[in-house]
Amino acid sequence: MSPVKHCHVMPSSAEDEGGGGTTRTCSDHDGTRLTHVSIISRTSESEETHPDSNYQTTRTRHNELAHRRMSAASRRPRTTHRRVPGPARRAGPAPYYARGAARTLVSARLSAPGGGARVFDNRIVRRVTQVGLAVALASSLSGVTGYASSAGTATVRVVAQGLNNPRGLAFGPNGQLYVAEAGTGGSSCVAGPRGQDCFGRTGSISRLVDGHVHRMVTGLVSVASPGGQGATGPDGLSQRPDGGLYTIMTASPQQLPPGLPAGLTEALAAQLGQLIRVNTNGDYTAIAGVGAHDFAWAKRHIALVPQQFPDANPYGVLALDNTIYVVDAASNTLDRVGPDGTVRVLAFFPNPPVSDAVPTCLARGEDGALYVGELTGGGNALGAAVVWRVVPGHKPVVWQSGFNAITGCGFGADGSFYVTEFQTGGLGAASPAGDVVRIAENGTRHVLGAGQLFLPNGFLAGPDGSIYVSNWSVMPGTSTQGSPTGQVVRISA
């Protein structure tokens, strides 16, 4: 049965370019349950004043660099974050698991050459249309899905499997484990520059109990390849100290493609880029249009990244007492969402010469600073990804470096900092191997889960010193000819 949606839209006093200014209350009935959704979209009135005191100098410097890069484009090859540059010597399609990296991490780039149609575009790796390699690799790893093994002194155990593109993790108010599932897309597909993008409402927030998956919130929008791999939808997940759970949705309503069914288009417009509060009874409320705000911000600051802006893809979220922080992997910003839903850019992460920073995760330290991990560090060179330290009101500074494809980060119970590496060989490498790097307070590094983690994502610290990450995070929950499914794993000493 097709969902029936009833919405009431009221104008608000807030206005912003490309987003904000309305309050929408909707009721969805999908034939099985009634969900009430309230969408509140606001933007900051002080957006043109960047919070970084050195912003004007930084902006001028970026303008100069942008002109230099543009003038030099005809003299040297340029690699942008639209696709992974390597391994350039590998012919043929990229590995099956690589198809999810672009959509999962920095997808939904608006592509409208010559004023053409808006479409979703893979921005890091090439799309894969053949599944032969997927089946072959899955067969060689058929023993992985039920493992309980160790690397060094760390033991990795599967907590749950059969998950649909699992991403962010959080403990709920009842102490149970929750995961954001980006879904498997849907049956409404449109042609993109590198293949089809399939849209649907298969995203969910799920509770994991004794290995069982209880999909508590369903009907969240999802975009994936036709096979359901590499979906993006609800990505980040965080619990506020008062017990509230928050997820962040991908992209922005400005990036909607044409040609989708009216009901699905309405759902996408209502959810894309939204910060959503979820309740354990299955209801959810969209409280801030972060994606719409960031897209508009990028449009106003297009000179920072003239060949890639405007763009938006909110990805990581950190919920604190009175403030929620979001990192946007496409606008390269750290945002603050106030109690009233107002969104403000706190920091912009500078672009390397050949790509952008692509921030994906964040955590707050005991010193009060925010620590932000990035995906590629520009150009996808091995060891190029870094962790930034951000003190609001100051420019971000590099705190730790030498990582590969960071997709999760945070502090553990012992004060160590953890980094989840999506692929240890760099984004788009031939191997899906990933790991978690623990940085002790004295700076010593230890690798956890080597040989046990594949395309991991997210990070959550347990009170007993164990940690949790999503594994096979770009895979759907239904296995195809022995291929792995999305998992959540627990790593303990």
UniProtKB/TrEMBL annotation:
Signal peptide boundaries: none
Region annotated Disordered, chain positions: 1-30, 42-94
Low complexity compositional bias, start-end: 85-94
Compositional bias segments (type: Basic residues): 75-84
Entry-linked InterPro entries: ScyD/ScyE-like, WD40/YVTN_repeat-like_dom_sf
Protein name: ScyD/ScyE family protein
Native species: Candidatus Aeolococcus gillhamiae
